[in-house]
Write a structure and sequence with these properties.
The chain has 2 domains: about 50 residues; about 260 residues, 2-enoyl-CoA Hydratase, Chain A, domain 1. The protein has 9 helices and 12 strands. The chain has about 325 residues and is α/β, with parallel strands linked by helices. The strands form 3 sheets. Strands 2, 3, 4, 5, 6, 8, 9 and 10 form an 8-stranded mixed β-sheet that branches. Strands 1-11 form a two-stranded antiparallel sheet. Helix 2 links the parallel strand 2 and strand 3.
């Protein structure tokens, strides 16, 4: 019996020690995750509390004469960094700055929303009237197409690289038809509407001649607004070529020949034109938390739009 009791006590001791060890490990992991959570919350707090800043060095406080730079990068849309509010704010700060000798809008964008592009175009026109002695130069790097060129055409001068892609002055609304496929698959469309044309562009229904004419008229109207803006901005520099407004895009070299651009150059070229090496970036950079919240909002909005079949987008291209 004594041997059995001894073995039982040894077994109980091992179980107790194992339990204690497990508790120690659990405490260590608990402390680790608590510290990790605390660090995460601190990072979130810093991101939320840190104000949005201009890029570059001490924008708005530069004491020396300088070239003011604003970046237009990526798709132009209300939900992206290249949205009208931020671009207009950045351009306004650049023009308002006492020691900015000129402003450069550096562009690398395929275009996007015609509404956002028109907002920026109109704001540039107003700023040029307000500051008649402060020139705005557009510098197109890889691409300045569609809505991005819409905006660029408001500048005093446009500079490109010979290999830049420029133009694409047109408007597009994309869609597709699945009615024949759904017939073959035996899928029934149960879309219900109040309003004769509420389901216009529904991919499961054929487009009537009346609806097609309506959409085409709308696209033609927006296209004409685009053409008028470019003609006003470029004036007599544009060559008489109907292909310019056909939606085609051109190399930078062709753009210069067609009058869509004024010459070849970069931001450094503008530095030489205004006789200063100083540059200050006035592009508004978002608080990282703002970007996160915006992306979450866009994702939610796109999900709702998809559920409601509202995903068709209109773009100047």
């Amino acid at each position: 019996m004594s041997d059995n009791n001894g073995r039982e006590w040894q077994l109980l001791e091992k179980i107790a020690l194992a339990s204690v060890e497990e508790q120690k490990k659990a405490r260590r992991w608990s402390i680790f995750f608590k510290l990790l959570t605390f660090a995460y919350l601190v990072v979130i707090l810093v991101m939320v509390s840190s104000p949005a800043k201009h890029g570059g060095s001490a924008a708005g406080e530069a004491s020396a004469e300088h070239l003011a730079i604003v970046e237009l990068k990526g798709e132009i849309a209300d939900s992206t960094d290249a949205n009208a509010d931020d671009l207009i704010g950045s351009l306004t700060d650049a023009f308002d700055a006492k020691n900015s000798k000129a402003v450069v809008l550096r562009i690398n964008s395929p275009g996007g929303s015609p509404v956002q592009s028109a907002y920026v175009y109109d704001a540039i026109k107003q700023l040029r009237v307000k500051y008649p002695n402060k020139k705005l130069y557009a510098v197109i790097t890889d691409m300045g197409a569609s809505g991005a060129y819409y905006i660029a055409s408001a500048a005093d001068q446009i500079y490109v690289s010979p290999a830049s892609l420029v133009g694409s002055i047109g408007v597009i609304m994309q869609g597709f038809g699945l009615q024949e496929l759904t017939k073959k698959l035996g899928v029934e469309d149960r879309t219900m509407t109040a309003g004769q044309h509420k389901a216009i562009m529904n991919p499961f229904l054929p487009v009537s001649a009346e609806e097609k004419a309506h959409v085409q008229k709308m696209l033609d109207t927006i296209h004409q607004q685009f053409i008028t803006a470019v003609k006003q901005g470029r004036g007599q520099r544009l060559k008489e070529d109907p292909q310019i407004f056909s939606g085609l895009f051109w190399t930078g070299q062709q753009a210069v020949e067609l009058g869509l651009a004024d010459g070849f150059g970069s931001v450094k070229t503008i530095n030489k034109l205004i006789a200063t090496d100083e540059q200050v970036d006035y592009t508004k950079s978002k608080n990282p938390m703002d970007n996160l919240i915006r992306k979450l909002g866009v994702t939610m909005g796109e999900t709702i739009a998809a559920k409601l079949s509202l995903s068709d987008e209109l773009k100047v291209r």
